[in-house]
Amino acid sequence: GQSLEQPSEVTAVEGAIVQINCTYQTSGFYGLSWYQQHDGGAPTFLSYNGLDGLEETGRFSSFLSRSDSYGYLLLQELQMKDSASYFCAVRDDRDDKIIFGKGTRLHILP
Amino acid sequence: DAGITQSPRYKITETGRQVTLMCHQTWSHSYMFWYRQDLGHGLRLIYYSAAADITDKGEVPDGYVVSRSKTENFPLTLESATRSQTSVYFCASRVASNTEAFFGQGTRLTVV
Questions:
Q1: Is A2's pLDDT higher than 80?
Q2: Do A100 and B102 touch (CB under 8 A)?
Q3: Residue A1 has pLDDT above 70, yes or no
Q4: Cβ neighbours, 10 Å, residue B59
């Protein structure tokens, strides 16, 4: 079977840094992606890690450790507009489908 | 307009009726996906397609049927709607060589 585990909710303060973890157990693995979804909206792509290490895109960074089946999304200089749900997703290298975790709801306090 | 569009945006149907959700993309992406989103379950894959005339089951395919006669269209049909199929449905597409998936705006389906 395939499963992705991430915390259901995280709370942080505006201007701070927050890390959202994701552990996965999948039969096939091509890479780990992160998506953001605001209330009432569609998921939008944030980042992708195909290899171990850190990928940085502005205030957002994503990390992957294939040996640990673990990754995280790091959000820096939090802004109120970052309040959203964040999903990790695995692309399966056997059949190319994309499976999502259940999502982490990020609450940001002023 | 370019992009991926779903229709209708909102639909209310009765138990036992057949209903089809439409998905159209203008990029000629080879891969297309259908997900349903429910509280506490995140996004669950219903069906996906690697190309025209090629479809495969995802995590929760029961009660759904898909077809893909043309690259740009990927309709999802609920053959006999049940209340448990009340959900928000998202269609997505991506290029074969890339990982980024692009999502439609979703269809909120209510089965009464």
A1: no
A2: no
A3: no
A4: 17
d(Cα A46, Cα A34) in Å, to the nearest integer?
Answer: 5
User: Nearest chain B Cα to A6, which residue?
Assistant: B42
Coil, strand or helix at B22: strand
**In sequence order, what are the residues at sequence separation of 6 or more whose Cβ sits closer than 8 angstroms to the Cβ of residue A45?**
A33, A34, A35, B100, B101, B102
Tell me how far apart the alpha carbons of residues A20 and A7 are, in angstroms, rounded to a whole number. Answer: 7
Under DSSP, the state recorded for B73 is B
**Whole-number Å distance between alpha carbons of A91 and A99:** 7
DSSP A68-109: TTEEEEEE-S--GGG-EEEEEEEE-TTT--EEE---EEEEEE
Q: What is the mean pLDDT of residues A28-40?
A: 94
CA of A94 to nearest chain B CA: how many angstroms apart?
A: 12
In whole angstroms, give the CA distance from residue A74 to residue A71: 10
DSSP B96-112: TT----EE---EEEEE-
C-alpha A40/C-alpha A30 separation (Å) is 29
Disruptive mutation site among B88, B100, B102 for chain A (greatest number of A CBs within 10 Å)? B100
pLDDT tens-digit readout, B56-82: 999 999 999 999 999 999 999 999 999
* Amino acid type, B81: A
| Both structure tokens of B11 | 């639909």
